[in-house]
């Protein structure tokens, strides 16, 4: 037996208890059944309960003519309940999946609007959870994907919370009818070319006809899988702690892991640990693309293999794997005269350099390694720069970016490398900050 609609307010408050202390609850109001009921519930509870400040956000995608009337509908609903409404218009980029593009645009807007002491509340319910599980199952998702929608996750500077995941659509409809609520029926929800609509209209009714508790059971399975993913995350943290060893190139600010502790793990644990590490950095590879990790690990000892991923590259060098993205993937401009060495010199796409101490005399310039450079060293004579970099196990990807200080054709210093960064007896060293962030040089 399902719980009756009269239980909804108390269940909602119970689900939102952990977030009663925040400053602001923002309700994502599409104008459909789910978000309309959520808004009404909270506005009504606010009359008798001490709740955070309430407001609503409506995202206008502009994808169909009917949608032009929805902001006014949402405004009328909010006015009747005494809730402030913010309407945000977004541009949906074209692509293979209009559903995904609209979702991405919507959540980008939510992220920009959600502040540090805000909770964004959305109206997804138990039927949506079951539908999400089935949809991802058919796409071959792993444990993380099959965990479906979490009750909470970060968004912007705040938190997104789905407080209705244990409520069925039938219960929401019952509440809406009992309170004579009006809501929008999106015409696109009838279009079966969209996969979720097809599942909702064609597949789910057949499943629930044969197994009436199918949606509740599937939502429960999603909860089990989220718990399993939590255990996998804990295992990944244990494994990554073994590989997150200190190293002398931490000043680069490049995420890296020691390779040997990773390759000592089973293949499955390697993938689990790497997935956990890569998730904040890039869209994760599908199952077939993981062969790139195997290739990277198995490359010869003298090689510097690269695994190309959606948002950057994983490089193997100096016994570690390094995550490179953004400016690290560009090629810096070859060089520049340093007219005022008493001030920091900005390097296009390569941060900045500065001299600590009394600058050496003569016309100075910054350049990058081209090959064949030689450096004169006290007590060692002239040495090939390539050999000096090899001796210090400098990662391959950074060798062409290390700022070199020249006076005429004489190589005076290699930034940041102990013993090569300057003339200590003359009291100066060359320091490089690889990014343009305003932070001190180490």
Blueprint of the fold:
Blueprint: H1 8-16, E1 24-28, H2 33-45, E2 53-60, H3 70-81, E3 84-89, H4 98-113, E4 118-121, H5 126-138, H6 143-146, E5 152-155, E6 158-161, H7 169-178, H8 195-210, H9 214-243, E7 256-258, H10 259-263, H11 267-278, H12 291-298, E8 306-309, E9 312-317, E10 320-324, E11 335-338, E12 345-346, E13 352-357, E14 364-367, E15 374-377, E16 381-384, H13 385-391, H14 396-399, E17 404-407, E18 410-414, E19 422-423, E20 428-433
Parallel strand pairs: 1-2, 1-4, 2-3, 4-6
Antiparallel strand pairs: 5-6, 7-10, 8-9, 9-10, 11-14, 12-13, 13-20, 14-17, 15-16, 17-18, 19-20
Helix pairs in contact: 2-7, 5-8, 5-9, 9-11
Low-confidence stretches: 1-5, 438-442
Output the CATH class name of the largest domain. Answer: Alpha Beta
Fraction of helical residues: 25-40%
Main-sheet strand order equals 3-2-1-4-6-5
Whole-angstrom Rg: 29 Å
CATH topology of the largest domain: Rossmann fold
Average pLDDT confidence is 89
Number of separate structural domains? 3
The coarse overall form would be: elongated
Main sheet record: 6 strands, mixed
Instruction: Give the DSSP E fraction (strand runs of 2 or more residues).
Output: 15-25%
Helix/strand structural class: alpha+beta
- The separation of the N and C termini measures 65 Å
| Count of separate DSSP helical elements | 14
Strand segment tally: 20
Task: Output the CATH homologous superfamily of the largest domain.
Answer: HUPs
Enzyme class: ligase
Pfam family, one: TilS_C
InterPro entries: Lysidine-tRNA-synth_C, Rossmann-like_a/b/a_fold, TilS/TtcA_N, tRNA_Ile_lys_synt, tRNA_Ile_lys_synt_N, tRNA_Ile_lys_synt_subst-bd
EC number: 6.3.4.19
């Amino acid at each position: 037996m399902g719980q009756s609609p009269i239980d909804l307010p108390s269940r909602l408050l119970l689900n939102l208890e952990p977030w009663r202390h925040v400053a602001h609850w923002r309700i994502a109001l599409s104008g459909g059944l789910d978000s309309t009921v959520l808004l009404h519930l909270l506005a009504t509870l606010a009359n008798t309960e001490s709740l955070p400040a309430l407001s609503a956000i409506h995202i206008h995608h502009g994808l169909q003519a009917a949608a032009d009337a929805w902001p006014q509908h949402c405004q009328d609903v909010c006015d009747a309940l005494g809730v402030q409404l913010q309407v945000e218009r977004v541009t949906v980029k074209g692509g293979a999946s209009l559903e995904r593009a609209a979702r991405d645009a919507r959540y980008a807007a939510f992220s920009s609007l959600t502040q540090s002491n805000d909770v964004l509340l959305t109206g997804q319910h138990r039927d949506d959870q079951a539908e999400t599980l089935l949809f991802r199952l058919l796409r071959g998702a792993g444990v993380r994907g099959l965990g479906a929608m979490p009750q909470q996750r970060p968004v912007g500077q705040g938190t997104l919370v789905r407080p209705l995941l244990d409520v069925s659509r039938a219960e929401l409809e019952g509440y809406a009818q009992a309170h004579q609520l009006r809501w929008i029926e999106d015409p696109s929800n009838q279009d079966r070319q969209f996969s979720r609509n097809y599942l909702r209209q064609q597949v789910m009714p057949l499943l629930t006809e044969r197994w009436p508790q199918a949606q509740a059971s599937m939502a429960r399975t999603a909860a089990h899988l989220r718990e399993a993913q939590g255990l996998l995350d804990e295992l990944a943290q244990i494994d990554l702690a073994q590989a997150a060893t200190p190293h002398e190139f931490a000043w680069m600010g490049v995420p890296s892991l020691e390779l040997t502790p990773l390759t000592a793990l089973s293949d499955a644990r390697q993938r689990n640990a790497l997935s956990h590490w890569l998730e904040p950095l890039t869209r994760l590879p599908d199952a077939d693309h993981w062969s790139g990790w195997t290739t990277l690990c198995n490359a010869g000892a003298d090689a510097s293999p690269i695994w190309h991923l959606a948002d950057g590259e994983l490089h193997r060098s100096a016994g570690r794997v390094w995550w490179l993205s953004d400016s690290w993937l560009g090629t810096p401009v070859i060089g520049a005269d340093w007219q005022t060495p008493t001030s920091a010199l900005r390097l296009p796409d390569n941060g900045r350099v500065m001299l600590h101490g009394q600058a050496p005399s003569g016309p100075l310039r910054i350049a990058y390694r081209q090959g064949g450079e030689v450096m004169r060293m006290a007590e060692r004579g002239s040495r090939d720069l390539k050999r000096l970099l090899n001796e210090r196990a400098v990662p391959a990807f950074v060798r062409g970016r290390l700022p070199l200080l020249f006076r005429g054709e004489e190589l005076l210093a290699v930034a940041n490398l102990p013993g090569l960064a300057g003339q200590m007896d003359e009291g100066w060293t060359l320091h490089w900050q690889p990014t343009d962030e305003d932070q001190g040089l180490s």
